[in-house]
Amino acid sequence: MVITPELLSTFPILNPLPDALLSQLAHQSTVLKVARRGIVLNAGTQEENLCFLFEGRLQGVDFTIDGREVGLYFVEPGEFCGELALFDDGPQPEYVIALTAAVVVMVPMENMRKIMLSKPGITNVLGAKLASRIRQMTYQRSLLGLPNIPQRVCCQLWLLVPEADKQSMEKSQISNPPTHMEIAIMLNISRETVTRVFQTLQNRQIVKRDGPTCLRVNDLKSLEGFAKGTQKL
How far apart, in whole angstroms, are the C-alpha atoms of residue 30 and residue 18? Predict the structure, then answer.
């Protein structure tokens, strides 16, 4: 796979850059193909590249003191990760692993830092992404404190519902939903527990699987009630 300016322009944050700058970045960037469960970014190391996901799905993970894996966030195609070092030149705080076979484009951190300092629009996008990720991780941590396990799972599902659907409260569709194991890692519970909650939701016709890449939510009001604790599952 050859990195071209056209390929780099498919990433929303890089799309506004002029062709000459994209050509320069294309020559300096590399492609990394990672197998499922492979490590893309290592915690505690000084990563030299900003990672752009071209294909597959990634997850930021950390580990508790007793060695349990805890999911922090997902990275979808077109998104990036490892951006924190752009601001403080510090080590990568968490691992980023591949949930599926993945193809990532590694852009040198120093080059991205120069672009960030010269292009305010890029800085705004990076800052907005950091703010969004901090909010998401703060919310994710708060879920771990919920004593009601079914409520945790419903909160995680509610988080995945598109905002527009939350406003209309009509039926919703979650594209490429995380697997039961991925949800279990995010919530620090067992996969079997997640499966039992899903079976209950499906039996009540609140959610329905439509193949591996789609989860239909038929009753948003009930899912919201379970997530907020105003209804019992």
Answer: 20
Residue type, 97: I
For the chain, the structural domain boundaries read 5-143, 149-228
Which DSSP symbol is given to 169?
-
Q: What tens digit of pLDDT does each residue of 142-151 get? A: 888 889 999 9
Strands 102-108 and 49-55: antiparallel
- Cβ neighbors of 141 (< 8 A, separation 6 or more) are none
CA–CA distance, 186 with 71 (Å, rounded to integer) = 4
At 216, list the tokens.
Answer: 């239909």
Q: How confident is the model at residue 227 (pLDDT cuts 50, 70, 90)?
A: very high
Pairwise CA distance, residues 80 & 51, whole Å: 5
Strand order in the sheet with 102-108: 30-34, 102-108, 49-55, 80-81
Closest CA to 136 of 121, 151, 155, 154: 155
**CATH class (in words) of the domain with range 5-143:** mainly beta
Q: Which two tokens stand for residue 160?
A: 């995945």
CA–CA gap between residue 167 and residue 153 (Å, rounded): 21
Q: Is 84 helix (H, G, I), strand (E, B) or coil?
A: coil
Is the confidence at residue 134, as pLDDT, over 90? no
DSSP 164: H
Asked whether the predicted pLDDT for residue 64 surpasses 80, the reply is no
Strands ordered across the beta sheet of 58-63: 39-41, 95-98, 58-63, 69-75
CATH number belonging to domain 149-228? 1.10.10.10
